[in-house]
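#structure-requests
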Amino acid sequence: MTKVVLTLLGFLCMASSAFATVNLDFNIDANHCLGNPCVSTNPVISYAGGAAPLVGSNIQVDNVFATSTPLNSGQTRNCINCIFSFTTGPATGSWSWGPVGTISLVGGIDLNNNGILDAGDVPANTTIFSGQFGFAVVQSIPGVFNIIGAGFVDQKNTILTNYFGLPNGPNIFYAGGFNLSFTAPAAAGQAFTSSSVLSGDIANTIPEPSTVVLMGTCLLGVAALLRRRFAA
């Protein structure tokens, strides 16, 4: 029931802001290796305690899948050497964090699906998306921790958006959310550093340009609701 409630809350902003039913889903299947020969990504999720932010770095993203896009809908394209990073805002309670932080995905995407990055692809070491954090909530289960609610807004690389026929420009923002599982030797609210990232995904929905301000306000509202529900 908790997960259902959080899912509904996480997408409340999208519904309230008249979003189109267009989605990009970036799959996280961590503890894999990048490239050939195999190179470990050494993912890290950490929290220093108190009001410190939740920080994630070196988290591998494996591919992107599109649904209901104007072009190339239903296609999955490999994300090559793609690294997901985030820093939330300050802690707002035990296992909850608010705005304002940062989020990004850097790497390359094999859009022509030939196994290498070449002409027409998103080049290596490109910022695929970057943006601002809205909120994050972690649920602790014995032995495993789950970021079960996280919201952000971002802007995307034009090669990627052009491939899927999506809007882009200085006033075009995307709404996002992600979930992520990891292990950590800590109880709720305690400082920790974890190098064991399990799996997750990052989902984006494309808003109308006029909804950006409403979307940001809504993210703050959802963060407040989540904080009251999950604060220890």
